[in-house]
Specification:
By secondary structure, the protein is mainly alpha-helical. The protein has one domain. It is built from two helices and no strands. α1 packs antiparallel against α2. The two termini are 14 Å apart. The model has no long low-confidence stretch (mean pLDDT 79).
Length: 73
């Protein structure tokens, strides 16, 4: 698949950054010792799940934009 440029609007970039932060925060909490084990696991899994679940629409959006650029070219 050839690589191309995909333009994203500022809100889309912010959404991507937010989901990456939730994903990273969840992963960090799963690996950190700041909370007791039960709390850490609950909060970590919630943030990790939110980050992963919100990544799906982003990936679909970027792939659609990329496909429309390839079709137009």
């Amino acid at each position: 698949m050839p690589r191309g440029n995909v333009s994203l609007r500022i809100p889309e970039i912010g959404f991507i950054a937010g989901t990456r932060a939730a994903f990273g925060g969840g992963l960090g909490l799963l690996l950190a010792d700041k909370l007791n084990r039960g709390q850490r696991k609950r909060v970590g899994w919630v943030l990790l799940t939110i980050g992963a679940a919100t990544s799906v629409p982003i990936i679909v959006n970027v792939l659609r934009k990329r496909r429309s650029i390839e079709i137009a070219a």
